[in-house]
Amino acid sequence: MTMAIVVALILIVLGKKAVAKGLVLGTLFSIINFVLMRTTIPLTLGHSRAKASLIGLTSVLFRYLILAVPLIVGIKFESFNFAAVVVGIFAVQVTLLFNYLVLERHSGEGK
Questions:
Q1: What percent of the chain has a predicted confidence (pLDDT) above 90?
Q2: DSSP per-residue string spanning 7-56
Q3: Nearest-5° angle of CA 45, CA 30, CA 38?
Q4: Is the separation of the CB atoms in 41 and 106 below 8 Å?
């Protein structure tokens, strides 16, 4: 989120307010999505397969509904750039992938 805010501030200075707002909106909902995922995955443990599947399916559907909110806002309002919203939604995944590919892999090279 910090990186999204820094990039957004730079974009605002460059006069790209809609892109900045879209990036922050998408990133915020991406973080909410991962927090919800983190809290619902443990709920499936200790239940029967049918109940765990129902909890998992409900969680996925709810998280999709949550992620639809910034996409709809990005489409409906010109003050938000839709492409930036999409980039923001993938911000957490890109950060995790970057962390794994660059930081984790290369930290073990010297061993």
A1: 56
A2: HHHHHHHTT-HHHHHHHHHHHHHHHHHHHHHHHHGGGGTTS-HHHHHHHH
A3: 15
A4: no
Rounded to the nearest 10 degrees, how much is the dihedral formed by the CA atoms of 31, 34, 40, 42?
A: -130
The CA-based dihedral angle spanning residues 9, 96, 29, 24, taken in that order and rounded to the nearest 10 degrees: 10
Residue 66 has pLDDT above 90, yes or no: yes
Question: Any residues with CB less than 8 A from the CB of 13 and at least 6 apart, and which?
Answer: none
How far is residue 99's CA from residue 96's CA, in Å, rounded to a whole number?
5
- pTM, two decimals, is 0.80
Give residue-wise pLDDT tens across range 1-59: 788 888 888 989 999 999 999 999 999 999 999 999 999 888 888 888 899 899 989 99
DSSP notation for 41-106: GGGGTTS-HHHHHHHHHHHHHHHHHHHHHHHHHHHH-TTS-HHHHHHHHTHHHHHHHHIIIIIIHH
